[in-house]
Amino acid sequence: MTAKPTPSYAERFWPVFGAGVVGVLALPLTFPPSVEASLRAAAPGIPPGLLKALALIQPALLLAAAVAIGAALAHRLGLASHLAGVNVRRRLIDEMPLAIVGGLIVGGVIVTLDRIVFSGPAATEAASLRSIVEGLVGGLLYGGLTEEAMMRWGLLALVASVMLKLARRPLDAKAPLVYALAIVLVAVVFAAGHLPAASVVARLDAPLVTRILVLNGIAGVVYGALFWDGASKRRWPRTWRRTSLSRSRVSCAGRDPGVARLTP
Fold it and tell me: I need a labelling partner for 5 at 20 to 30 A (CA). Which of 41, 97, 195, 200 fits?
């Protein structure tokens, strides 16, 4: 059976970037009144709508850079994306149960830790039902699309590639430890990335910083693990399997070549 050709760079870039842009456009929905007041105070002569649009330039540029990196590296690492059409082995609907269950578990753990360990966030400003709904929708779109495109598709692919190069392993190497370290590192960056936005709403003290880093870090690790799960189960290229078998026979005589540790 003829293997499906790898999508072009443009085909790997634009669908993921387009999804991320939807989240960027939804970002103003997450702005609390304090953020909007800060924007107006910083530039009183500029219309609020234009200020919000200008605030979207930086995340849009970060998104473009991350998606460009992911489009160049993710498919070589075996990371899967239905939008980019690379390394897809199952239907999206078949993957949804694990994603939904994982999301519910993460949400439950975060809420429980937030209430028991961190005593919940301090109420800084009253919120109407409309602002709550808008914040939820904006958070789901920006967090579920834009942040995942930047952190997992782009940054995780970059960090894993660099670590594999430093370890002198090929990009398609099965290296669980490398990916575990990359996932944790990206999760730390993901968690720390929430600090600037939090500083606009509240003063950053040790308890608040700890809360943001721990809760978002847990989420980042789980999201990274779910994203990598498909790569860890991928079918290795036929040329790599032949090379691996020959090396294991030469350097690991008497051992099972299927489990022998190989050096590139």
Answer: 97
Spatial distance between the Cα atoms of 222 and 200, rounded to a whole number of angstroms: 27
pTM for the structure as a whole: 0.84
Domain count, the chain: 2
Largest CA distance in the chain: 77
Q: For residue 105, tell me if it sits in a domain.
A: yes
Q: Which residues contact 231 (CB under 8 A, 6 or more apart)?
A: 77, 78, 79, 80, 87, 179
- Say if residue 256's pLDDT is above 60: no
Q: Are residues 114 and 22 in the same domain?
A: yes
Domain check: are 21 and 69 in the same one?
yes
**Model confidence at 260: pLDDT above 70:** no
Q: How far apart are CA 172 and CA 78, in angstroms?
A: 7
Q: What is the pLDDT of residue 122?
A: 53
Within 10 A of 45 (CB to CB), how many other CB atoms are there?
Answer: 5
pLDDT in tens, 62-79: 999 999 999 999 999 999
What single-letter amino acid sits at 174? K
Range of the domain at 255: 236-264
Taking residue 119's Cβ as centre, other Cβ atoms within 10 Å add up to 10
Establish if 1 belongs to a structural domain: no
> Are residues 264 and 209 located together in one domain of the fold?
no
**Each residue's pLDDT tens digit, 44-58:** 889 988 999 999 999
Do the beta carbons of residue 226 and residue 98 sit within 8 Å?
Answer: yes
Calculate helix-pair angle for 176-192, 157-166, nearest 10 degrees: 140
Q: Are residues 206 and 258 in the same domain?
A: no
H-helix or E-strand spanning residue 227: helix 206-232
